[in-house]
Structures are given as structure tokens and as C-alpha cells.
Amino acid sequence: MKKPEALRHKLRRQWQNGKLREQRLLDHNAWPVTLPIGKPSPALISREISAVRKHIELWRKVTAGAIDWQLVNYRSTAEAVQLPLNWVLKSADEWIEAMADETIRQEYLLLSTILADVDPLFHSLLIHQRQQVLSREAEETIKACEVALLLESGCAEGKPLRTLSIAGCDSKFFERNRTLVGKLLEMRFGQQVIEQGLEHFLGALDESEHWLLVAPLEVGLLPFKQQRVRSSELAQTPLPGSHLLIVENERSLYQLPSLPNTIAILGAGLNLSWMQAAWISNKSIAYWGDIDTWGLSMLATARSYQVALTPLLMDEETFEYCNEEKAVAEPVTAGESTPSKLTEQEGALYQQLCQLDRGRLEQEFLPDDLVKNEITRWHSLA
């Protein structure tokens, strides 16, 4: 016997489920939705009839959707009792009304406004990518969809993205909407957008000039202890050694052990397209990043360039070992959809992190001994 507020809470949780949200907003066959209320036991009817009356009164006040009232016979009552047995919702509008949550209602109105003005090709993505949608004005999201429909492979012809005048967008448009436009283009053109990188796919000049920190883990392997190198230059410059350790954050340099024939490249973050370089495929490669949705997304991107790489310290076991004291909230997730290049276990971890209040474990907070032992073990086996 469930109270209205208990089922409202259930409906709100369902809204947070990306797949369920997409199904109910896009598929008319998803309706109606019936939520069982349950009926009081004979013991409750005979001993606490006042509680049953209060329960009935609560459901009589519900105006969203339809309540399935049925007469139920009990031995302890002279007449059949009319009870609410099911809550039936027939549309997304009724779902929103039933939840009685102003934040969700505003989110639904925003989504409805956007979906009404953009190509249906993008509807599923926009419903899943809530953070991308909620973080900008509706007009900006609609403009991003319009731009994504006009872009083609190689269309930039060597010019910087900021100089492209498409659908009236300003020079800062791609800076503000880079991630969203990339995901929209992926809906049109598939994985090649991610695999090549946005600039490379569009044929645009890469102005980012991302600098990477190169550090040999064996003295004398390079003529320096550390040096910053442009990612575009690194892609064209084969490095010595047999092992390559790619690390998401520069600040983890102090955690790395000394290893023969090994070079570490740190601070790549999201800029991983340089990993396509042919010379890299001849190395034994490991990738180590944060255990959060962005870290796992970067791992998936790195694997799309070098399928044989070994992920280090980015599994559920490591997270469970350290999360009680070290895990923090991830301000914005990388999205509810699991990146395609993750393994089944990594994908399960990704979804777990999406649901946790503290779903981020930064790599520099892992115990030094654990880090050194795991990296050394990889080196000995590779």
C-alpha cells in the first residue's frame, strides 16, 4: 500500500534514467504507464481502519493521471471497500505533472522547446545529454543543432573553426559548444568524428597547440628530465624506448617509478588525437587517468587510437579500495551514455559512477605504493 509521495519519488528516479527518459519522451507506445499502489491487508482493515481511510483520502486528492478505483471485499467490513489500486499515466505531460517537481518541470519545458525546433536525428542525444542542454540557453542548443547539420567532413578547408561563418554563429561559438557539436556530428557521421578529432574531421586548423609533458623514466633515455612538447610536434617525432606510459594529469609525475626504456607523457587530458601517430603503435602502451566519467571517456578515446593499450588503476577494484576516503563529487559528468570503446566491466563502472554522489577518484590521491606497484607490474609483463 503505497502513498502518493512514495510513487512520486519513484517517478522522479525514473526521470533520471536516460534510457527510460528517452523512451517515454520519444515513443508513444511507452504509454500508458501503470504504477501499482497495492491494497491494505485484511489485518490492517480490521485493526487500523483510520489509517486506511487516510490512505484513501490522500489518493482522492491526486489529480495527475487517473486512479484505478476498485471495490474490494473484506470479511471485517459490511460492504466492499473502494480502494485505489493503480496510478495510470497516459502521457509525458501527465508524468511531469505526477512528479510535482518544479526543477524537473522546467527541464521538461526546456527540452520540449528545443526538440520542437531541431532535427529528429538529434532528439535522442539531447534527451540523454542533459548536462549539455541544461548548461546553455535553448537558443544556443538549437543553433548548435543547426550548425551540425551544415558541417561536412573537410568543410573548413584549413581555416580555424572560429572563422567559420555558419548559420550566423559568432567567432566564440565553437569554443562554447565544442563538445556538444562534436556529439551532434557523431550522430551524423559516426565514430570517425571522435577517432579523428573535431579539427581533423572538419579539415580545420588546430589552434589549440596543446602542450604535453614528456618525462623519461630512465636516466639518459632522453637528454632532459622533463620537457614540454606540442602535441602536433610529438605526433611527428618518434621517441626512444620500448614502453610508453600516458598519464591524464601532469601532477601525477611524482608518483611514477623509475623504469628502463620507458617514457611518460603527461597532461594530455582530452587532447589525445596525437596517439594516432604510427610510431606509437610499436610501443607497449599503458594509459592511466582519473576514475570518473571523464577519465573513462578519455580511456575510450585513447583505446580508439591504440586498441592494444593497457589501462592502469582505472577499475572497480581500485575505486572500491580508495573511494571511502578519497572520492569526491564529479561536478559535471561526461554524459549518461557509456562510451563505445569501454569493456563490459569498464562500462559497468562508468554507469555506477554516474549514479554516485561521490563518483570521482583523482589519480594523484591513490596511494603511492599502489601506483608504483601497478605500473611496475605492467612494465614487467608488457
From TrEMBL:
Span of domain Wadjet protein JetD C-terminal? 205-374
Q: Where is the DUF3322 domain?
A: 4-185
> What is the protein name for this chain?
Wadjet protein JetD C-terminal domain-containing protein
Origin species, per record, is endosymbiont of Escarpia spicata
